[in-house]
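> call design_seq(struct)
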């Protein structure tokens, strides 16, 4: 089945460039182009595309405003094109709050060494959203929707059972759809939360400072981008810096964050697997690890190591994911003791941690 795409950008050159890339993939078809947000809204309503690529800055109606209106009327997976600057990061986060599910740098050379690599990456992202995307109307920040009862329990006999011991760390890994999912979870955590939290979100290095600052303003707990040597502190969530790797080091009451450069060939920067692996060595039976929405399977191997050492693994359920990739890998491997609607994650964390 062909995935139908609408390309939206005020630059005719960029529209043609993106269209040529997408049309090179036999699984994709660009069905129309729009040069501003107002035109995009009309075309989404009439053509019902499977995926929309959207520029942020456009005349008549900008991409963020258009995204809000599209998601309110005709929810559709939207990929934003943005600049990897501080202003670009803030605008992209606004777009994700508005309902966009993914983003890519508008300068393809920022993510690929040549045109072929850029084309392959763009096409894969659109294919994944077109075939796996789960779209619903965006939740207004600061509000809560009714929690659905979607908790499932599995206890594979081939793995070590969770100890039921006191949780000393909550570790959350996510990718596509993660910024909104993390906002949902973290805004519900109380200020007096008794354990530290670490967050691993696939995101460029220029985006994570703005994302941490935004979350910190929205949440009762403290959120900060992790820095080398940071101590784990109750009521504080440390976000892995984009483009680097975050691991735990130390013993006893002297557990510290170590920020490292990524080794050549590493796909994910930061990597959920790498962070989870280090957590398994420090808190082998005292971690609650949660894998939220995202493409691929990053986090599955790290979750397996944590599970084998006696820690507890949860996953977001398929219906509430933007892309059911990372959580599906964990569930399919028999690692998840709970599979939760995103609205149930925070209340269950609070209940489990006590």
């Amino acid at each position: 089945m062909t995935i139908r795409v609408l390309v939206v950008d005020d630059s005719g050159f960029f529209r043609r460039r993106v269209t040529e890339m997408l049309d090179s993939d036999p699984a994709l078809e660009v069905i129309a182009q729009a040069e501003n947000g107002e035109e995009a809204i009309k075309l989404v309503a009439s053509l019902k595309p499977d995926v929309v690529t959207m520029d942020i800055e456009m005349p008549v109606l900008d991409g963020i405003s258009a995204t809000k209106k599209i998601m309110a009327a005709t929810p559709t997976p939207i990929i934003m094109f943005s600049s990897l600057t501080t202003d670009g990061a803030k605008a992209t986060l606004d777009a994700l709050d508005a309902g966009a599910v993914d983003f890519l740098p508008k300068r393809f050379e920022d993510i690929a060494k040549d045109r072929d690599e850029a084309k392959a990456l763009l096409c894969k992202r659109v294919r994944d959203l077109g075939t796996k995307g789960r779209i619903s109307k965006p939740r207004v920040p600061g509000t809560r929707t009714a929690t659905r009862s979607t908790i499932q329990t599995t206890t594979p006999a081939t793995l070590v059972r969770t100890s039921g011991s006191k949780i000393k760390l909550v570790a959350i890994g996510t990718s596509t759809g993660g910024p909104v999912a993390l906002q949902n979870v973290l805004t519900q955590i109380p200020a007096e939360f008794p354990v530290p939290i670490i967050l691993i979100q696939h995101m460029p290095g220029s985006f994570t400072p703005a994302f941490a600052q935004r979350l910190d303003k929205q949440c009762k707990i403290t959120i900060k981008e992790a820095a080398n040597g940071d101590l784990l502190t109750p009521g504080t969530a440390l976000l892995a810096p984009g483009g680097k790797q975050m691991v735990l080091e130390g013993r006893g009451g002297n557990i510290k964050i170590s920020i490292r450069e990524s080794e050549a060939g590493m796909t994910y920067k930061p990597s959920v697997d790498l962070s989870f692996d280090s957590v398994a060595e420090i808190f082998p039976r005292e971690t609650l690890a949660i894998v939220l929405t995202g493409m691929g399977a990053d986090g599955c191997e790290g979750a397996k190591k944590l599970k084998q050492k006696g820690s507890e693994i949860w996953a977001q359920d398929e219906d509430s994911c933007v892309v059911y990739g990372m959580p599906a890998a964990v569930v399919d491997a028999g690692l998840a003791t709970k599979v939760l609607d995103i609205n149930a994650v925070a209340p269950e964390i609070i209940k489990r941690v006590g």
